Amino acid sequence: MRAQTLAAAAGWRWILGGLAIYRRNPPMLSMLVVSYWFIVVLLNIFPVVGALAASAVIPALSVGLMQATRNLERGVPLNMQTLFSAFGERTRSLLLLGALYLLCTLGVLGVSTVADGGDLLRYMLASNPVERAALEESNFALPGLLVAALMTPLMMAWWFAPVLVAWHRLTIAKALFFSFVACWMNWRPFLVYGLALLLAAVIGPGILLGLLLILLPGAQQFATVIVTVAIALIIAPTIFASFYVGYRDIFGISEIV
Questions:
Q1: pLDDT tens string 232-253
Q2: Would you say residue 5 lies in a domain?
Q3: pTM of the entire structure?
């Protein structure tokens, strides 16, 4: 397993590469992404068990979306079954990977209780709108910074782990290690990539919403729907496709078993 160190500009090219892949079949890739979201949201309806189930299946579903973008790049037809293509030989490892991520995330939130006495953790886990509203008055600055600092290496370890488990057949420990090292080696392109994501997923939609409100005053609900649809059907599929482009550039498709 070898990871390449790329130039900082590669982070921006991942977004452009994702857009190029998305344009090959916008309806199908959008449908797969929406289906991914629907499954996760549906599972989270059920308290506790649903959250655990959603976390467990996310790695396998993410690999399914990676497979979809790889198929598009190679000119292979897509169908709904592609989303579930990772459920097979490596299912158990992928489910364990998802469950482990949830436990580690809860552990990080647990550590944040040192800074705020548990307000942030209670806010994240609150299901009662009244309770959540009451906690919104708390100061989450310090615990938020602590969580961000701890979640960064965690996300680095999990960023490529699902696809390394599924496609390279690595153990969970090795996949987490190689993912972390690959992200560490490429912190510059990931920094640019993060800024590109901020532009594409936050600033861009914000500008679009502002323009619509200027052109259509009084149509706030309509403008919000337009921006939401654009995010769901264009921006989100492009971002998911960019995950594959980043993986492809760093690890090289020739290493896929």
A1: 899 999 999 999 999 999 998 6
A2: no
A3: 0.88
